[in-house]
Amino acid sequence: MEPVLPARPTAMAPLLEYERQLVLELLDTDGLVVCARGLGADRLLYHFLRLHCHPACLVLVLNTQSAEEEYFINQLKIEGVEHLPRRVTNEITSNSRYEVYTQGGVIFATSRILVVDFLTDRIPSDLITGILVYRAHRIIESCQEAFILRLFRQKNKRGFIKAFTDNAVAFDTGFCHVERVMRNLFVRKLYLWPRFHVAVNSFLEQHKPEVVEIHVSMTPAMLAIQTAILDILNACLKELKCHNPSLEVEDLSLENAIGKPFDKTIRHYLDPLWHQLGAKTKSLVQDLKILRTLLQYLSQYDCVTFLNLLESLRATEKAFGQNSGWLFLDSSTSMFINARARVYHLPDAKISKKGNISEKMEIKEGQETKKELVLESNPKWEALTEVLKEIEAENKESEALGGPAKYLSKEASTLLSL
After folding, report:
1. CA distance linking residue 35 with residue 325, whole number of Å
2. Domain limits of the chain?
């Protein structure tokens, strides 16, 4: 068997048609770019980094993480850029930072350092070409970045400010969220690039991907756990509305409680009144958050990890607030019983047609009974195994040399499991 050589890092692909159009518009007028996920906000930022990798420019980059900075620097190094971006961290002394700034180019610096350097005039504000802001939707939450932009605009009226984000959902909460973000960014132009944009849609229509969807069904025990969690969620929502009659709104429904923005919806209604709420209401809000997490972890984690999580949460009273009442519901009992049934089996335990286990199992728990391991596998891993075997079989039958299979996952826990 021939050894598999590691893949060499390749340069970033050139800009697509709609990306070039957006870059030209942004070069002409500063603004906030809000594009759909997957349309390449990082590619736009990378293009502007490459344009300003020159000693004659001084460009600051905000809201980037260390892994992203390393990625951008490596990509620029592959393309043969001589004046690579530099990082300004606490390892560089305050006296030598002025020399780093005066050398020009692109600078990755932490917000805390930039605030200090702006206030002490250690950074030549009049020489700054501009500032690039990544993850611009967080500019309101992170007050340091907004303060940096204010100091920059007060001392430099000519420098550009260009902001990028691919999280359009973050702007649908609060009052005038887009307006407040643009005010903190000191920009007047808003570039909206959804997937149904004319330029984007016409380009994507020419290169349609072949998508194969595989619907994975849960096991009976997983369905029983899911039903129990949904019943508990519904009970908590009803109790929350009972304690707070002013929250009788359509947004606080079981259907919306499953969605991702539900936590923001709760905060939107309760934050102005949080200091007036009682301990019971705050406990219910915490319970809703934990139950939503359990619903998500049911399909992410294996049966043993999920059971350990349930047992640890029940053992830790503080995690559920002050003795939450839903722990005594029948649905809660069903959730714990079925979670144990996925891991081990008691000889006298019987499973009903609905997937629930009889009460004999609860009786046997207190006795020393030999447990038979079940270790129910997650259905998604079985589906993934079948897909990988199918890919391997097609590569063997094909005359062309098959490439590597890439697995993408939204959750980091899934990647760690692999």
Report:
1. 44
2. 17-205, 220-347
* Other beta carbons less than 10 A from residue 228's beta carbon: 23
Please, is 384 exposed, middle or buried when counting C-beta atoms within 10 Å of its C-beta (0-12, 13-18, 19+)? Answer: middle
- Biggest distance spanned by C-alpha atoms of the chain: 80
The answer for residues whose C-beta is within 8 angstroms of residue 273's C-beta and 6 or more apart is none
* Under 8 Å between Cβ of 167 and 137: yes
- Beta-carbon-side half-sphere exposure of residue 3 (alpha carbons within 13 Å): 2
Separation of alpha carbons 236 and 281, rounded Å: 10
Residuewise pLDDT in 10s, the chain (418 residues): 344 444 556 677 788 899 999 999 999 999 999 999 989 899 999 999 999 999 999 999 999 999 999 999 999 999 988 899 999 988 888 888 989 999 999 999 999 999 999 999 899 999 999 999 999 998 888 789 999 999 999 999 999 999 999 998 888 877 788 999 999 999 999 999 999 999 999 988 888 888 888 899 999 999 999 999 999 988 888 888 887 777 666 667 777 777 767 777 777 777 777 787 778 888 888 888 888 889 989 988 889 999 998 888 877 754 444 556 777 788 888 999 999 999 988 776 544 444 444 444 444 444 556 788 888 888 988 898 899 888 888 888 776 666 777 888 877 777 777 7
Expressed in percent and rounded to 5, the helix, strand and coil fractions of the chain are: 55, 10, 35
17-205: CATH topology is Rossmann fold (3.40.50)
Query: For residues 385 and 387, what is the distance between their CA atoms, to the nearest angstrom?
Result: 5
CA dist., res. 211 & res. 296, Å (int): 24
Specify the 3-state DSSP secondary structure of 395: helix
Q: Which residues contact 292 (CB under 8 A, 6 or more apart)?
A: 233, 257, 258, 262, 263
Cα–Cα distance between 180 and 164 in angstroms, integer?
15
Backbone angles phi, psi at 127, to 5 degrees: -95, -5
